[in-house]
Amino acid sequence: MLSKLLVTRFVKNHENTADPKVRESYGYLGGIVGIIVNFILFLIKLSVGLLVKSIAVTADAFNNLSDVLSSVITIAGFKLASKPADAEHPFGHGRIEYISGLIVAFMVMLVGFEFTKSSFDRIINPSKINFKLIPFILILLSIAVKIWLSKFNKYVGKKINSSALEAASLDALSDVISSSTVALSLFLSQWISFPIDGYVGIAVSLFILYSGYSLVKETINPLLGEAPNPKFVEELKKEVLKYDYITGVHDLIIHNYGPGRVMASLHAEVPYNMSIVKIHEIIDRAEKEISKNHNIFLVIHMDPVNTDDEEINHTRIEVSNVLKNFSQINSFHDFRIVGEGDHKNLLFDVVIDFNSNFTHEDEGKLISNIDKEIKKLHPHYNALITVDREYT
User: Fold this and answer.
1) According to the model, what pLDDT value does residue 286 have?
2) Same structural domain, 218 and 231
3) Secondary structure, 3-state, 188-248
4) Does the pLDDT value for residue 129 go beyond 70?
5) φ, ψ for residue 266 (rounded to 5)?
6) Which residues make beta-bridge pairs with 333?
7) What is the domain count for the chain?
8) Which of 181, 133, 214, 176 is nearest to 41 (CA)?
9) I need a labelling partner for 251 at 20 to 30 A (CA). Which of 7, 13, 206, 310 fits?
């Protein structure tokens, strides 16, 4: 496999993808290969386009030229993103990689706009296309090369979890589709007299615009703070629960400051009557080990849970049954009873999905309805409920 051969040949210690230097080398390799391949394809397609007088082929050629600049920006993005943390950016400059991907996406859209105009002009002012076999074969070869480039970028992007390189893979795949459409129009021009390449040029341009839009969404989401990978969230919870005396996990929040620069915080439920020194030692060890295993910065907050009190245990089960009647609620935690005699407060948090349509007014109604149901069982209990959103 050529992709693997290039990686092993040009990336030192290529298996150690957690190393920032290795990751940077992967990014440089992806960018350099993109520059070389796309520039060669630009020269081939431009020559073919001028030779056969096809606006669709010429549009495809300049799309490849924009890909050259995209690869340059990708390299620059990796270089800037690898800068060490400083006082103004304590978590480093990793998000620059996302910004470089966003610039590439806008460049793709700009090319699409320009060639939509050119294609309209060709429809209004048509000129004959001269089909020639050798240029047609060169375009087919360029399609094969782009298929490989897409797979190469995807391979490298997956290796280092790079949205910029995975976006480049998607961009190359869109080029495969656009070039295939161009080749088809060139082939059909032997029998069709109307300006088919103008119409195909519009189709190619619209596809380029759509690809650019998709890339913008792909690269802007991490900058805006997208939800973390659900698989990673579950793995993190399971690892925390493997440690002695930790019985539950909640309030997990993950912040992404760029690839390899992730900060996570969570609350871990521990026995209330355990030595603080001992449980602190366990929590401290969990933070260090999990942070190292996943290359993240993990902070764990301890939540003491009383599991010995009969009243608390019995009431917790009753409340759990009550909450099953509310479909919005995923789970509840931090359950405790405060007070004495006939005047007691039940304190707990309920977790709901992050739904933008669920307003503060809706939260108030939910809390009121839960309190009413609990009072049917225990009129002397006053429920103090906090609504948490599921940020993962």
Assistant:
1) 96
2) no
3) HCCCCCCCHHHHHHHHHHHHHHHHHHHHHHHHHHHHHCCCCCHHHHHHHHHHHHCCCCCCE
4) no
5) -155, 165
6) 349
7) 3
8) 176
9) 310
